[in-house]
Amino acid sequence: MIKRKKLLAELILRIGENPVTALLGPRQCGKTTLARSVVHIEPVHRFDLEDPKDRAVLQNPIMALRDLDGLVVLDEIHRMPELYEILRVLVDDSSCSAKFLVLGSSSPQIIRQVSETLAGRIGFVDMGGFNLREIGDSSWNSLWLRGGFPRSFLAGSDRASLHWREDFTRTFLERDIPQLGFRIPPEAMRRFWTMLAHYHGQKWNAAEFARSLGTREKAAASYLDILCGTFMARRLQPWHVNMKKRQVRAPKVYIRDSGMLHSLISIQAFRELFCHIKVGASWEGFALEQILSISGDRKAWYWGTHSGAEVDLLLDPKGLNLGFEFKFSETVRTTRSMRMALDDLTLNHLYIVYPGDDSFRIDEKISALSISDVADTVSGLLRA
What we know:
Blueprint: H1 5-17, E1 20-24, H2 31-36, E2 44-48, H3 52-57, H4 61-65, E3 71-75, H5 83-91, E4 99-104, H6 107-117, E5 122-126, H7 132-135, H8 140-146, H9 150-153, H10 158-179, H11 186-198, E6 202-203, H12 206-213, H13 217-229, E7 233-236, E8 252-255, H14 258-264, H15 270-274, H16 279-295, E9 300-304, E10 310-315, E11 322-326, H17 336-345, E12 349-354, E13 360-363, E14 366-370, H18 374-383
Parallel strand pairs: 1-4, 1-5, 2-3, 3-4, 11-12, 12-14
Antiparallel strand pairs: 6-8, 7-8, 9-10, 10-11, 13-14
C-alpha cells in the first residue's frame, strides 16, 4: 500500500474548513481508498451510489441523512445529482452536525451542479494517480511506462499492467461514459481517443480531427470536452503577452496518464517506448503531469510564437514566472528558442527536465533538472 500523506492531509484540511468537500479525480485513481483513510472523524457513514442497496436507502434522502453525525461519504455522486439540493438544505440547518464528503469522476458536471446549489458551502480537492512524490524518485521508469493508476502501477508485471489498462479503457467507454450521461457510441469515442494519443503534445486542431472522424468540428470538440472533463485528457491553454510577435493561440492536448497513452499507441515495454516516434512527446506529457500534480493546473500554461520560440510549461507567469522545457536526452543543451523565451517572457528561471541523474545550473537563469529531483525542486519553489 502506497500512502498518499500529502493528499490525505489536504483532504482533512478541506473537510475541516467546509461543510461539504468534493474529492474529484478519474475512475480507479484511489478516491474511495483515500476517503477510507479519513479516520479522525467518527462515526463514518458510507454510501456507494453505484450500489442499488445504497441508492434505495437514499430514495428519501432527507430521512436517510438528516440525523447522521460524523462524516457522511457519498461515492460517485453523479449517479444521484438530486442530492446536491438536499445537501444544501442539510448544511444550512444549524442542527446538522455532519460533514459531507462527495466523490466524483466528472469535474465539469459536478462543478456546474455545485455552483447552482452549494456555492460557498463546498471545498474541492483534485486527485490523480500516483506521482513521483508518492512512489519515490527511483521508480520513475515504472511510473512513466505504466502510468499512475494504482492497479496499473502496482501490477505484478508489465504485461499484467497493460491488460488492466486495456480492460479499463473498455469499461470506461462502454459503461462509465454512458453512466455519466454522455450518449456517444463507444467505438466513435475509442477512435477519437486513439487519434488524440497520436496528437499527444501537439496543438489542437478541431477541423483536422473532424475530417478524420467524418463529423463536424463541434462534435470533435465535444469529444475532447468529455475526455478532459473525465480527467483522461488535458487541454493546456496558451499564454499571451503584449508583444509584437505573433503568438500561438491554440491549446495543446495531452493524454494525462502516460500508461494510458502507451496503451492507446500499443507500447508494451521500455524497449518499444525508447524507439517509438512518440517517445519525446510521451516524456513531455509525463514530466508535465508530475509538475502539475504538485503545483496544480490553475496557473499553468504553455507559450509559443509562430517564429518557433516556445516554452513547454509556464508556471504562474504573474508570480513565480517559471518556465519548463522537457527533453528526452542524456545531454542537456540550451537553444535559441530558450533564450528567446527568457527574454520575451522575462522568466525568473527556466528548467530543462531530462532523464539524467544529476541536476545542475547551466547559467544564471537556466538549470538542468533531473526527473528524480522534480518533486523536491517544485515543492521547494512553491514554498519559497
